[in-house]
User: Fold these one by one.
Assistant:
Number 1:
Amino acid sequence: MVRNAVTVPALTVAAPVTQAGEGYWQIAWRRLRRHRLAMGGLLIIALLVATAVFAPWIAPYKFEQIDLLNRFGKPLAPRHLLGTDDLGHDVLTRLLFAGRVSLLVGFAAALSAIALGTLVGVVAGFYTGLVDNALMRLTDIILTLPIFGVLLLLGRYFGGGIAPIVAIIGLFGWTTAARLVRGEILRLRTQDFADAARALGASQSRIIFRHLLPNALAPIIVAATLDVGGAILIEAALSYFGVGIQPPTPSWGNMLQNAQSYMWTSPWLAFWPGAMIFLTVLCFNFFGDGLRDALDPRLRL
Amino acid sequence: MQRYIFRRLLQMIPIALGISVLMFALLTLAPGDPVDLLISSDPRVKPEDVVRLKHLYGLDQPIHIRYLKWLGRTVQGDLGFSRTYKEPVTELMRDRIGNSLWLTVTAFVLAVGVAVPVGIYSALHQYSFLDYAATTFTFFGVSIPVFWFGIMAIYLFAVWHPWTQIPGLAWVLLPPGGISTPGVGEGLPFLLDRLRYMILPSIVLALLSMASYTRYTRSSMLEVVRQDYVRTARAKGLAEGVVINKHALRNALIPLITIMALSISGLFAGAPITETVFAWPGVGRLLVDSVIGGDYVAAQAVLMFLAVLVLIFNLMADIGYAFLDPRIRYD
């Protein structure tokens, strides 16, 4: 893939002398494949996404189906592999459907946070001066907020559904991406290829979208991957406190909401949802870390 | 240096004001002011009472006037009166800040005490078994949901039976929550009792910071030992211990101290989850309880307190950095 649209042959000399015709993304993919933890993480993420997508076909029951005669069922029972909860929901079924919600929130919130952060970062880095100053002070203010308390508060006002939770996490999660993108844009905009594009008469949007952003894509992708795990953790915490996703819609966080009070009698209820969150976030962090190593050009040789 | 500190202080003012506006807006534009809540809980309130009460509490005034009045009161240390606790918020917070400090300080000491040696070892023995183990541990630490870790810790160390079945091991069972046994007395018994209650929550609270400090120590140390002056020190024939302690470590610690100063306030603000899981009567739990319970006067005060704490520690981190690293320019 040609990363800089400037088609002056001399500029491609900087490309790594590895295998002929191999582009940046192919090199990154080759490096990523060698990273065992990252590939393991990716594999498990793929599996989790698959079980989430196909939950209605895999799950033995409907997620809202309750069996009041069979509450607090122990795991490894013939009809309920992971037992039943305080209302007689099948825990395995709830876990599968909760995965849908938690993963959806994770991806959507990370995507909106990154989109917003990229927008702010590009505007601040490209236009500099007063705009940059104002946006960066806003970033400072948001970074100073006791973010968990604010999210808890907003969750209490607007929480309950998936869309508001995604919006809340996105609205307060963009600061890291904004700083990152701003730094990249500030660095890139003074480089020769940007000057060349400007000299050739390229419009501002062309410079930004064709020349600057593609070059800043690597750190954005890494941040997005790590953000998915972060968003899943935040959603879980909000739901645990009862201001995130509301039952009967299951999420891994709200499955833990009552579990603590049944710990003396039914400890398995608290185990599975948390273990799923842990596994998922761990995999995103492993994958994100591998991705960083693979995409970091400084490590290319 | 003095000019630098002064300038940083001046820069803090607009940010503090911005935060106060945001906080006020968040809590005031919330659906339902205190009087509305009162009406919904008491059907006998008459419409003329509502008007009278709204006037009494100044809720009928324009928003910017209310903001300025609130700001004025807050700056003078009057944080308002909590409806649910029937107490002035300042009183409410005094004990809780103390309780939170117990937990935060212990967790911080624990985190630094483990992370710095482990991080240094990891960096000096890169790719060794222990380095891999430590790196994996840092991934676990940042990925585990705090409340779940807390619940699991309570189950394993405060609930699970096999521990207590072994004769003479019943004392191993730790308290599942709370801060002290009623009537334990004072002095040493009090301290020992408090320590027993702090073991689980402080470990749970420390884990995240421990993981990130370990990561920072390792990478900071790795960067420093590659520097030319470390090679020079070795080439001079200095003992390895001197090279590491006097040349490498001291430089590696500079960025670390900044990160730690920045994160102490984070530790304080991160405590709500841990404090709630372990029923620890601290500031974090007050925040959760007041937000969930709709006591916005208390919530506003705690949020503002935490934000000011972050501002102060950020300033201290900047000043500390400038002091520790002579390469930093003050202008």
Number 2:
Amino acid sequence: MSDTPLLELRDISKSFGSVQALTDVDFEVRHGEVMALVGDNGAGKSTLIKCIAGTHTADSGQILFQGEEVQIHGPKDAARLGIEVVYQDLALCDNLDVVQNMYLGREAHDRLRRLKEPEMETKTAETMRSLAVTTIRSIRQPVATLSGGQRQSVAVARAVMWNSKLVILDEPTAALGVAQTEQVLALVRRLAEQGLSVVLISHNLHDIFETAHRITVLRLGRNAGVFERAKVTQQEVVHAITAGVPTKVSGIPATAGTQA
Amino acid sequence: MSAADVEIVGQDAPPAPPPEEEEPTGLSGFIQRSTANIRAGNLGVLPIVVGLIFIVVFFSFAATNFFTADNFGNIIIQMAGTTMLAYGVVFVLLLGEIDLSISYVAGIGALAVAELQKPSASGSGMSGLLAIPLAILLCVVIGAAQGSIVAKVGVPSFVVTLAGFLIWQGVIVYRLAGPGSIIIQDRWINYTGSYYFSHTAGWLIALLVTGGYAAGVLFGVIGKRRAGIPVGETWLIVTKIVGIAIVSFGVVAICNSASIQGTPLGLPLAAVIIVFFLVVLTYLAKRTLFGRHVYGVGGNAEAARRAGISVARIRIVVFMISSAMAAIGGIILAANVNSVDTNFGGGTLLLDAISAAVIGGTSLFGGRGEIRNAFLGGAVIATVSNGLNTAGYNPGTIYIVTGTILLLAVTLDTVARRLQVRAGR
């Protein structure tokens, strides 16, 4: 695999009025990597994600996708690049079944705008099988009847189905029990095994150490370290989250594994 | 069965992986799934069908001339207008919105055809064949205007359509203040309420409905087979087709044996209109991009918006459909009495139409409901009203009974929903 990261953000700054949400933040996701993004409340995780997803536009800085500089001005730009976000609320329609949710807004249809139900059902079944989501009895049951973990799986599968290269998961396990969390984490690992890159936002260090390859820490809108999971302890990450010193003085890039 | 298996092998289709959990098949499996569904709160149309049978049996004993072929035709004609309005209401309710203007938009539709067909001083008026589409078009414009205010400006639909309720009522009263009423003489318009097909035509229509349904089901099965998706139980499919055949031929048989003062009647045109819109609107709701988006917006508008669906456009089109169906219903109701007067669109029309949709199981909170709910609800309301009239009850009783049924139906549905939430997790 090439050394060029799939996604690279350089010197991203974003302010809302007088509030400086992000200051010169660097962020990098490699091919087939699970990159955890952690930080305390208000550290700038959501803002950074929204800059990638196109909900916000950064005030300054560069975004490189597969080595090429790109402009992301809206969710459609992000989707075109192959970036999909699964927000915490999942954005599922409870009254629709799994297939209908997977295709919401992108339904397969013919010239007369009639739905191609068999095609959608087959592809959904394929996607579910490739992700080894086996706990859902029928993909024709309404999402309202699914458990929290299954709902998360549907939302992730939907993000994956559209030839996406980067899937951003916002707190995917926040509302789940132990067994269901395990289900979702296994799914995240499978995504990476299949060559997708994943950004995992979480407050739960246990989850992160279970799945992530690397961990980016933000603190007060600045970089507070990028760690290799294998070479760091939870205590060190907690320290970076709560008391990390900016790893980057203006103009000098941070290096992987740098510690304060 | 075996022929299809051979065909799949012949196409070198990849073998389907074994299902994780074998679903029980056959009759026992069907019953097992059905009871599981009912336990989980998916009552479907079961309660209303049972209720309708109960109502019919009750009035058959309570009124001597209720359970007759003649009266069956009456009920069909009486339910047609309200049911058209109720069909439109289902779409509006699917979005979690409300349209209170439909009864007087129906009035506007009726007033428009009446005005257009009215013979002018110089000669004859416009033919109904032209007047009807024009009246519907006018109401679609009204619906588009109301829908735009809801969707683009963000005024709650309750307020917009309440204003519409008053405004369109005002227009009708204003326009008819002088003449009091307009008589409808155009035969095409009046046909919607009083045309009966010949006996042979009736049988042909029954054949067409059965054949069309069977063909639709078969195409669906073939499509699924090709895609390698599990097809429902064969015996269940056959049972459904046979059921449709029995119902359609049964309805025609009853209608054909009816007569009025010795003149034999037949299948009323109103019955065909009811079934036509039932089929077309069900198709629109269930099989098209638009219909799917309506359910999506009704289920979670924010999710639909993020998925790239134009929520405003869906809302506006739904209000247009609602007004169009109101216009059609209004024309049928006017044809029933061959005139439009200042009271047109008043009385219980609005609430009957909404009740019909809701009694049938359409949720007021959006995302859940089907066109057939309005059909069954319309049948219940028309049957109760007809039965109580035939049995000679005070009109007050009709309101009390209809209200009680509405309350019962929604209570049952609410309890069922609560069970479903529990069963789901």
Number 3:
Amino acid sequence: MRKIELYTPLSEKEIRRLNIGDCVFVSGTMITARDAAHKRIMKYMAEKRKLPFSFDGLVLYHCGPLVRKVGDEWVTLVAGPTTSMRMEPFEAEVIEKLGVRLIVGKGGMGEKTRKALERYGAAYGAFTGGAAVLAAKHIERIIRVEWLDLGMPDAVWIFEAKNFGPIVIGMDSHGRSLFEIVKNNAEKHK
Amino acid sequence: MNLEDLIEDVAVKLLQLAVIKLPEDVKASLRDAYEKERSPIGRIQLKAILDNIRLAEETGLPLCQDTGLISFYLKAGSRFEGLDRIEKILRKAVMRATLEVPLRPNTLDPFTQKNTGDNIGRNVPYIHWSIFDGDFLEITAFPKGGGSENMCALKMMKPAEGLNGLKKFVVESVIKAGGMPCPPTIIGVGVGGGANIAMDLAKMALLRPLNERHPDSMVARLERELLEAVNRTGIGPMGLGGDCTSLALKIEYAHRHPASYPVAIAFQCWAARRATARIYADGSVECLTHKDQIIS
């Protein structure tokens, strides 16, 4: 198994080199967004409004962290991934229009996302669901928060990460999905 | 300390214990899965899970950021004082635990989407009562994450499909769920009764210790057979492929209506958080899920 270190901003070239099954560790900027944030992103794009953050070359993290405010600063307590499939209706458009290069979540995503990853040169990585203390250990600090009115889990948290992983590439930019391979194989063993 | 304060303190500590430290049977089962897993990617997942369990215990932080929607399962002795006040006390305990542990605020109004911020809402925390002839109160704190909950399934099968239909439904649900419920999972299966009874039984099955076999040998055999079938799918840890898809499968049943054959499946992620304590009439407290823990 290949182990690869990545640093944001990520280029399309770097992402095209990744294959399903690769194990990556990411350093740089990771931005969280769950269902409610995705809905708002869609609304902003439909109204041609400028987003208060940019995903260009960065990591989109499906995560609703548990954080605490200490003085004026937000501190990450624990921050594992959430189920990515809930964001399936929105993600292809986010990949196409906002320049996300790596999506990190758990459980994998669907056909629309698989095609968008292939077409626009992005990848999807799985971080172990529930391993939230381990995840937080690799989040150095919270750069800032946006849309806190959505509530703690659904706000957009901008993290600075160091060596965040192990992330297993579950869907690559060559149209392959490890989740689909595993499921098709499971169908044969019913 | 008066009894009400004691119950509140015990409930806060049970929530804290549940979200930080898994019961010994769950940890042992995950260690065993890691030993046996042959897929390298599956091993990476199980290693991260075991590391995370250790880190949570060392730091005293919740092991998963999703500290769940909160349920309490109560076994209440009919002679235990003040049962009418328990629900109020438990709501207060949840509010306190949300600040003190802390727990992620996870309770939203389904119409306005507003987060209440304190894990208290209409019918939340959910409280499940069973009353028995006795004088102690047993409280199980059961915070359950949304990822596995979303995979729960109910099928009102045709009685003619019978046991074969049930087996097919379980395996198909596991494949459909894939990596989404955070495998290796624990699966609760409720059979019979009506729709609500079947799902209630499936949830109750998740409360059983993993190493405990069903007292009915026919049901115990079916549990083993279904677990093997589930693990043969190769869905594996986090749906990335491997030997261990589920740690355990537990069945509970009720008699059914001639026309109905309800089957409910409750998925529990590997972070199977539950903590149980008994409060005796003399004010002494015993923790049943975490033997080395002194609760008060």
Number 4:
Amino acid sequence: MPEIRSQQQLTDAYEQYKGLLSLRLGKAVDDKTRLVLVCGGTGCQASDSQKIVEKFQKLIIDNGLQDQLQAEIAGCFGFCEKGPIVKIFPEDVFYVQVKPEDVQEIFDQHLVGGQKVKRLLYEDPALKVKIDTSDEISFYKLQHRVALRNCGLINPEKIEEYIATGGYQSLGKILNQMTPEQVIDEMKKSGLRGRGGAGFSTGKKWEFARGYANDEKFVICNADEGDPGAFMDRSIMEGDSHSVIEGMCIAGFAIGAHQGYVYIRAEYPLAVKRLQIALDQARERGLLGKNILGSEFSFDIAIRLGAGAFVCGEETALIHSLQGMRGEPTTKPPFPAQSGLWGKPTIVNNVETLANVPVIFERGADWYSSIGTKTSKGTKVFALAGKINNVGLVEVPMGTTLREIIYDIGGGIKGGGEFKSAQTGGPSGGCIPKQYLDTPIDYESLASIGSMMGSGGMIIMSDHDCMVNIARFYMEFIVEESCGRCVPCRIGNKRMLEILTNITEGKGTETDLLELRSLAETIMDTSLCGLGQTAPNPVLSTLKYFMDEYEAHVIEKRCPAGVCQKLMRYEILPEKCIGCTACARGCPVGCISGAVKQVHVIDQSKCIKCGACITRCKFGAVVRI
Amino acid sequence: MINLTIDGQQISVPEGTTILEAARSMHLDIPTLCYLNLEKIKYLNQVASCRICVVEVEGRRNLAPSCATPVAEGMKVVTNSKRVLSSRRKNLELIISNHPFDCLVCAKSTDCELQRLVWEFGINTQRYDGERSEHAIDRSSSALKRDPNKCIMCRRCETMCNEVQTVGALTAFGRGFNTIVAPAEKEPIVNSNCVFCGQCVSVCPTAALTGIGYIQEVWAALFNPKKTVIVQVAPAVRVAVGEEFGMAAGEAVTGKLVAGLRRLGFNAIFDTTFGADLTVVEESKEIIERIEKNENLPILTSCCPGWINFLEHSFPNLKYMPSTCKSPQQMTGAIIKTYYAEKMGIDPKDIVVVSVMPCIAKKYEAALPNEETYGIRDVDYVLTTREVAKMLKEGSVDLRHIQEEEFDNPLGQSTGAGVIFGGTGGVLEAALRTVYEKATGKTLEDVNFTAVRGLNGMRIAEVDLDGRLVRVAAVAGLGNARKVLEKIESGEEKFDIIEIMACPGGCVNGGGQPYAEEREEIIEQRLSGLYQLDRNTKIRKSHLNPAIQALYQEYLGEAGSHKAHEILHVTDLFSAAVKQK
């Protein structure tokens, strides 16, 4: 592969490769040429998507149809609920939950026969009709894909396809036409704020780092995604590593750095592999390394694997870990922009933040800042999970309401339950109740209702979820993941967890509720890093919005959602029991007694609340209280 | 200068000052727990983990740890608002909620900084009674006891071990509630590269790290009528033990200590300083030989077991460099069980040698397999300065009110040279006094080699031995030792004699001394106490000690003789240490 040594050569390369994407963009070559795109994200690969694409490829070769048919992998399509997903271009037909054994049928009927396989099309749950193309699906209709623009469009392992999207043009333009100061100004004008959690202005962060003179500076991409349920960074790395690489190069140029690191968790092997491929390709093509695109600017990137400690997402802890030390945060100031990696000025930007950077320069800061709300510009990717029909990755303009995300894009509550709460911001965030469904989401509005943007995890809870138990779950996570350095986080959170556990086990008192608030105050006020300072948020927000549930647990010793096992009982209704013995025979601990044709009784002291009896009883005589 | 207000009072301080330092300069006593600043030895623990020293800074969202927050222009700080006090109290209550409540029987009781803070805060109930972390107590070595259940994660030991001593035996381990400072993989300490210098013990605010105690064993020996129990006292002990009785640091209480030990029932009270003089005579012989032949230089001193351990772990290819002399403790023990035993007609098997040391590593050294003579252990039990103070108190001795008495003879006779062994530079200075006279045949008029004295981590001097310029260095602290040894290894620097002591400041600041906490002036006072003793001593050159001269005449022959080697030298210093592990 020849090196690209100038902006002109980059434009030539773009002209050369842009045809690679024409089928995908809906331009038919003839009625026989088709492209099969199979989702190659971790989720779909776990459901055999690799086998699917290989099977397609084999069929194409076996039938000698290489000239007109092609099968490729792409990055994550986002609609994980329905994976593995197979798209056929140029028609943009969207097949869902495809299994390897379906490949032959798609091949015969669609690729060769020209007829869609109806049964594999997505069915709109509300309208009960099959939908042919992805842009008609409500999950996609309301999305605005900026950070995810290339995910699911290009083969992430082919740099040509990234170049074909106009990739690296922003870097080329910057190196030729802009000064670092202009780059920073443009970034500030765009209004882009950090997508990793705190929402600090990216342009300002770069400006600080530029302002500190030093012989060496560093750009770190924080790919240590750790919020439970969040996987947008993984998907971007798996589906579009080059946009992150390009973003890092631009950041390096802006602050005056020549070395970048991607700190990525080792639990993301596919993302690491694709990133490594992308780095190798970029280096081979002269888009990374010495004198990028023939300019004076040199910049290279190395991968560093994290061992999967949540706290290493905190930037000072990340830097320690990167230096080979224990992943532990330190007091700020000094901020990394002043003294970071090896004591040098360093910026730490999140994956999604960096993926936004090239588009800002491609389409302009004005365009970017036209999206979103007054204080929060652009789009945000959310990982929708929990009791929602359409689990997956969604990208929406800032200011979209929760209701739109949950009901229009997310397809509403799974199993027909009622919406109770949306948890955003992971263990640092809060639980948002029903009355805020129409709040336009941005950094400030989420903070004002006791939650936070965080990295974009969004877990939907229904009336089958116990909010005390949810608070306990997040606290358990924090207690496991605290680095153990400062007292309030190491011990305070543990004490909060113990109180919460007591409450869910019916041992809580009203004083405990006061103690939770009091502990939360000290933990937030005195913890060393962001992890501890925000750790009590899930507890505080549930105390605020779901006090009735806490009171039910504490005063009535009852779990309204029927989740907390220790507060739950199984009983046999004498009037319904016919004495068939099915429950007693199915009880794993033998706590049900009663003779044939006699009413059976559960010994509560032995019952482990497994629910085996209720599933075995055909007469509705066993009830859960 | 930066202008700020603290509790309404204006103050100007240099840029880079922390809020805590600024407040202390105004005599505002913000409580601290994890923070420890020992400027003279370049030790700073500023991990800001305990969150006891938090203060309110106007405009800041959360409370600031005053120990780690630099001042800023126009800053408004409040150190005692309701918010501040209740947060401090709560964090302290959280710390004790995961700390054993066995204060009454704890080795650190009344010396515990956590206990003191709880008392000062007036905390008199246990607010949280949740789970406590449970870890195995590590008594794997003969010197150091680790009770991780008492660890409050202040990280002082870790900072000492890694940054000052560069030993790297301790690190935070694990995550969350059960995080603990431990050797790698929570292995027993004896399997780590710990050198048992005991500096971690000196800075530990609780009893998470203490020495292994031998008081009961010593009482048992004293009460055993079949045993002749002989005690030896190291030089650094006499200028520190008084502190445990409320006397001034550096005040030499030699005679009172001798009297007190006699009250406890020891059959003879000897002075390790005698062993120090003997070490000087033996080592000087080696020094002169090596300098004359100009080989195996520099010669490194071998008095300090912490340092020798360090050499073994970190610089194994330099292990031909130390002198083969046993340490003064071991020499004294060996002479007691040979020469003295013979003289007194006592079977050495019936002698119990107890030594009182400022040191933890001496416990380790005494237990090394090769530290014995003719099959008999040189030293049986090692007590620290702290332990001997406890024994004295238990035995109804109050050092303040006891008449001074003299050491027993002949191993009670010593010189000023032997006394200064207790501080950094002292071993070197004592050796130079003898080496000069032996090598040149001239009388050394001014015995004070002041260039090698002081708390500075490394002092270099050149001494003229009648034309041969000898380049010498005194090094204290293992981090400094590492720097010097690296330069020697690389050939960047050349020396003839180097004295190395593991502890910053030398034995006066040993891991077995009364806890000085952050009162660094105490170390200086102990050091100057030693030099004062030296000045006031008539004989200040080891080879002129009449008891030493008699020992050679009657028993050993001459320095470096075959018999001297059998009794006073070890050849397998290193393999022995490895064997013990």
